[in-house]
């Protein structure tokens, strides 16, 4: 059995564990979580109740706003304002105090027609009345028999409207002349000219529209939704069972509201010996309270009975699962983690890492593949290093091949020019060319010392100074500290050539050229300074970037400088290379920066030949002798 288990794949092992152990426990946990969801449903039910209350509040507020349109229009209706002013003046009135002049009668007809239209358009409104200071002025009703109040001054709603300018008053519910329970909306009418009291408008409406708003709400079993007026009296109630909001419950609600116990909807409140979850909101305009009540015991009964056993069972289940997962990790995951750590140790310098194969399953196959992979990586890394080395050598030789013909062309051009003039300095110039070529070849080596590099420049300047005898003088200075420094060969001469062709040759008068090699911290600097024509920033950039490469201007193309910069950066990195500082009319400073590498300590010593310093003949020119003395 043990061998069969070791031969099983990882997937069958996990499936076997899930089938035999984890799945039954997870099924048990799922059942317990389902029981626990009952408790969460309490919060969901309360949130549902709050949404119901909020939606009802919005709908009722909109409904009251619709009813108050007529009351608000009375303060701006011209005919009504004129009619009420005539009533207040007491002129041309009958025994009841109503004006009888033709204009007032006409205004009365217009007002009455307006009220009739409003009653016809709104089936929920039943009576519209306009009262003066102490008696009824105009009244329209949908009932055949209408018992109207002739003097409302003693009523509560009338007194409240007298002191409630700018707002509305809702009274009721009460039993009016019709068959349905009604409520009334009233508001004071003031003179639009001086704000004086003119009367009160009262609009009676039944509860049909309110019942529609409430009945459209779906309530759960034993849930009650109700609307209470400002006095705590019941306006409307809806539930799926018998009436809950009886007189005793309404009294308990009024007391709870006074004690501010209805403010927290997530805390049960005790009403008439029973606990309820209550969600409520009070409208600021009407003073009504919109209420949702749900019995506390109904919501939490199942949750209360399952909390304790569920917690105990869950604790046991998780303990067992942790033990089983630990066993699973020991058999499956730990070897994978070990393999992962081994893979993190694999680098180009550390590829020969092997792991012992202990099983015949997928993990064992993975370990074998890992061992084969590290072996292949080792071989490929050796191949890659060799290919990169060859590639670098080919690139350096290709760049070198671009420079050498350029040097030779310019030098032979100078010799031909001197031969045509039968200049006696043609022999030392030719000797200087021979020394220059010997240093250039350097037995095929790519690196030379800084001293040999400066000797190469010195021989080049011997040739150029003979060609342009009255154009410039020069100095070549090599500090002792850098003579044994290793450098890529033939990097200074192209800068000297550019200095002659771009700076010195194009300026009138005699110029001075200084070439120097010296130590600067951990680096070596080769500088070429002249006081020639100078360049602008655009020309400096064109020389370094190789813009216009291949164009023959007759005065140096800058190919050598670009290749020098590429060779240096290819060998030492992007932080090294060639830089230019120049100003028109004042001269140019070209700088080469390379790292200091001592010939005696470098691994490149085998690629560096002996000193290529060739002593000059005694018959060299006076200019050359003065240059040597300057060193």
How would you sum up the global shape? elongated
Note the main sheet: 5 strands, antiparallel
Strand order of the largest sheet: 2-1-5-4-3
Q: How many distinct helices?
A: 15
Please report the first level of CATH classification, the CATH class of the domain at 407-630: Alpha Beta
Mean pLDDT: 76
User: Beta-strand percentage?
Assistant: 15-25%
The CATH topology of the domain at 407-630 comes to Heat Shock Protein 90
- Quaternary status of these chains? single chain
**What structural class is derived from the secondary structure elements?**
alpha+beta
Percent helix range:
40-55%
CATH-level-2 architecture of the domain at 407-630: 2-Layer Sandwich
Calculate the terminal CA-CA distance, rounded to whole Å: 91 Å
For the secondary structure, the number of strands is 17
Low-pLDDT regions: 549-557, 610-631
Radius of gyration: 54 Å
CATH superfamily of the domain at 407-630: Histidine kinase-like ATPase, C-terminal domain
Would you kindly provide a written description of the structure presented here, covering whatever features stand out?
The chain is built from 15 helices and 17 strands. The protein is α+β, with helices and mostly antiparallel strands. Among the domains are: 74-210, Beta-Lactamase (2-Layer Sandwich), CATH 3.30.450; 407-630, 2-Layer Sandwich (Heat Shock Protein 90). A five-stranded antiparallel β-sheet has the order 2-1-5-4-3, with helices on both faces. Strands 7-6-10-9-8 form a five-stranded antiparallel β-sheet. A five-stranded mixed β-sheet has the order 12-14-15-17-16. It starts with a helix and ends with a helix. Mean pLDDT is 76; it is low at 549-557 and 610-631.
């Amino acid at each position: 059995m043990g061998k069969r288990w070791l031969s099983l794949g990882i997937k069958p092992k996990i499936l076997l564990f899930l089938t035999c152990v984890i799945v039954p426990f997870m099924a048990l946990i799922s059942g317990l979580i389902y029981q626990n969801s009952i408790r969460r449903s309490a919060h969901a039910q309360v949130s549902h109740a709050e949404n119901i209350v909020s939606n009802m509040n919005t709908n009722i507020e909109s409904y009251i706003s619709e009813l108050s349109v007529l009351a608000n229009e009375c303060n701006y209706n011209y005919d009504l304002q004129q009619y009420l002013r005539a009533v207040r003046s007491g002129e041309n009135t009958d025994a009841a105090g109503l004006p009888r002049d033709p204009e007032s009668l006409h205004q009365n007809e217009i007002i009455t027609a307006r009220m009739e239209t409003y009653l016809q358009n709104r089936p929920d409104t039943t009576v519209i009345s306009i009262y003066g200071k102490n008696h009824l002025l105009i009244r329209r009703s949908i009932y055949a028999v209408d018992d109207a109040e002739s003097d409302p001054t003693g009523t509560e709603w009338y007194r409240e409207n007298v002191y409630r300018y700018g707002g509305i008053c809702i009274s009721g519910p009460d039993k009016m002349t019709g068959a349905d329970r009604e409520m009334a909306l009233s508001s004071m009418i003031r003179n639009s000219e001086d704000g004086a009291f003119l009367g009160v408008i009262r609009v009676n409406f039944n509860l049909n529209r309110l019942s529609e708003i409430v009945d459209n709400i779906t309530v759960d079993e034993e849930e009650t939704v109700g609307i209470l007026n400002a006095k705590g009296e019941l306006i409307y109630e809806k539930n799926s069972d018998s009436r809950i909001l009886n007189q005793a419950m309404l009294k308990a609600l009024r007391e709870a509201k006074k004690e501010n116990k209805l403010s927290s909807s997530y805390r049960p409140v005790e009403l008439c010996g029973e606990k309820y979850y209550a969600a409520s909101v009070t409208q600021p305009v009407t003073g009504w309270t919109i209420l949702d009540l749900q019995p506390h015991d109904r919501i939490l009964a199942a949750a209360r009975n399952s909390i304790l056993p569920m917690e105990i069972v869950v604790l046991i289940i998780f303990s067992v699962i942790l033990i089983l997962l630990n066993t699973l990790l020991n058999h499956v995951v730990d070897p994978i983690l070990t393999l992962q750590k081994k893979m993190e140790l694999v680098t180009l310098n550390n590829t020969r890492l092997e792991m012992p194969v202990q099983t015949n399953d997928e993990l064992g196959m993975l370990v074998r593949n890992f061992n084969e992979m590290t072996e292949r990586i080792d071989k490929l890394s050796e191949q890659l290093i060799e290919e990169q080395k060859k590639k670098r050598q080919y690139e350096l030789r290709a760049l070198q091949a671009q420079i050498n013909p350029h040097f030779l062309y310019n030098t032979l051009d100078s010799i031909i020019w001197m031969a045509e003039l039968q200049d006696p300095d043609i022999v030392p110039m030719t000797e200087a060319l021979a020394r220059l070529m010997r240093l250039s070849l350097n037995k095929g080596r790519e690196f030379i010392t800084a001293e040999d590099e400066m000797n190469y420049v010195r021989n080049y300047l011997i040739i150029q100074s003979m060609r342009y005898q009255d154009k410039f003088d020069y100095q070549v200075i090599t500090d002792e500290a850098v003579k044994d420094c290793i450098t890529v060969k033939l990097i200074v001469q192209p800068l000297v050539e550019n200095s002659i062709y771009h700076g010195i040759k194009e300026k009138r008068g005699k110029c001075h050229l200084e070439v120097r090699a010296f130590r600067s911290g951990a680096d070596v600097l080769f500088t070429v300074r002249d006081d020639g024509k100078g360049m602008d920033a655009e020309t400096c950039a064109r020389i370094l970037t190789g813009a216009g490469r291949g164009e023959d201007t007759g005065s140096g193309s800058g190919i050598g400088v670009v290749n020098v910069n590429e060779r240096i950066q290819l060998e030492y990195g992007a932080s090294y290379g060639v830089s230019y500082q120049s100003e028109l009319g004042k001269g140019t400073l070209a700088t080469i920066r390379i790292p200091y590498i001592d010939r005696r300590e470098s691994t490149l010593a085998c690629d560096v030949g002996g000193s290529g310093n060739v002593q000059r003949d005694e018959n060299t020119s006076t200019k050359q002798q003065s240059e040597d003395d300057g060193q």
